[in-house]
Amino acid sequence: MILIQSEQDILHTIRNRQSARAFSSEPVSHEAITRILEAGRHAPSGANQQPWHFVVITDPVPKREIRVACERVEARLHGFPPEPLGNWMKEHSITQEKAFLEDAPVLIAAFFDPKAPYAIPSVWLAIGFILLQTEKEGLSSLPYTPAGAELNAILSVPEALRLAAVLPIGKGIPGKPQPRKPLTAIASLHSFGTPFDRTSTP
Amino acid sequence: MILIQSEQDILHTIRNRQSARAFSSEPVSHEAITRILEAGRHAPSGANQQPWHFVVITDPVPKREIRVACERVEARLHGFPPEPLGNWMKEHSITQEKAFLEDAPVLIAAFFDPKAPYAIPSVWLAIGFILLQTEKEGLSSLPYTPAGAELNAILSVPEALRLAAVLPIGKGIPGKPQPRKPLTAIASLHSFGTPFDRTSTP
User: Fold this and answer.
1) Cα distance from A99 to chain B (closest Cα, Å)?
2) Residue ranges of domains in chain B
3) Over the stretch B139-182, which tens digit does the pLDDT of each residue have?
4) How many CB pairs under 8 A join A and B?
């Protein structure tokens, strides 16, 4: 089948993508940032409301402010982490220090309008597309979600919009690859518990 | 720059993807379904919990049951649709009839464990990856979210898992392309209201 090579291209990017928590300071071109944002702009959304707004930050001063605001909420989370998050953070040496918010040359703060229909699914579809385009650019990112971090004031974003994630973008220093559950554990055919198998006939 | 062609490949897929609400019954190969599921399987997730389960449905009987269950909740939604959803559905001739749930050769019901950390963002990242691989296969889909539809019993899915979306997959009959807000309206540089421009220096 002549299309296989091309069909597997996105899968290749998806399989190779790996979240990074450490970045070099090497700058990212404006063209790359533009293409990364374009990927988010073309995501589908509930009733086509496109309920997202992305703030791109490259200046050290707001990056520092964002880091301080995020580490403040991290201190609360790390005090009493819910499981399995707590264990996972310990295993991966993830602390409340978020140096990547200053080290990454670019941050994209993704906001959304919670009043739009299907707002959270929509903004996360856009973030997913952004993560893949970032990988395609030879760059790394992390869908970092500092729950409760108050970044609206720092970035002059109206209070009506809520933060979904802060995405550091840059040349990443890759972490440990994350193991995946096998396909048969995460997909069923017709009925939960009847594993979907690569080789079974649907 | 020699990488441009390859870099823009995912963007090309993202820009061309269009949700479909009508499908031909032409079957989808098992290999294509497998690659589509593989795309979801490799999405990032909170604490790498991979809190998703995908049920693939190709049989007419459960497809019919799913349609009936979804149209039941659609009847309620269409009775008192919130705006701007109501107007948008009217403009796009979207009614409570969901024939695509029977017409599409494949449905993927995406469930998630709401107790996992960042469960909703995680499952929507996986759904986004699935939508792109579907497009790459030359197929169409729709991130259809029948809020409150009770599909667990039909698909023997434990009550602990919740439905995120039902994705019809097949040769789609494309709808009207959805217009997008310009980049300058959905992206700012450093401060909300300072438009991010393709040509400005970050």
Assistant:
1) 19
2) 16-176
3) 999 999 998 889 999 999 999 999 999 999 999 997 788 999 99
4) 260
Which residues of chain B make contact with A38, given a CB cutoff of 8 A?
A: 11, 14-15, 183
For residue range A64-122, list pLDDT tens digits in order: 999 999 999 998 888 888 889 999 999 988 999 999 999 999 999 999 999 999 999 99
CATH architecture of A12-174: 3-Layer(aba) Sandwich (3.40)
**3-class SS letters over B97-158:** CCCHHHHCCEEEEEEECCCCCCHHHHHHHHHHHHHHHHHHCCCECCCECCCCCCCCCCCCCC
Percent over 70 (pLDDT), chain A = 95
pTM of the model: 0.94
Tokens of B136: 């790459």
Partner-chain contact A143 B44, CB within 8 Å = yes
pLDDT at A64: 97
How many Å lie between the alpha carbon of B106 and the closest alpha carbon of chain A? 9
Domain covering B16-176, topology? NADH Oxidase (3.40.109)
- Comparing CB atoms, the residue among B15, B84, B137 nearest residue A49 is B84
Q: Which of A6, A19, A34, A107 to mutate to test the interface with B (most CBs of B within 10 A)?
A: A34
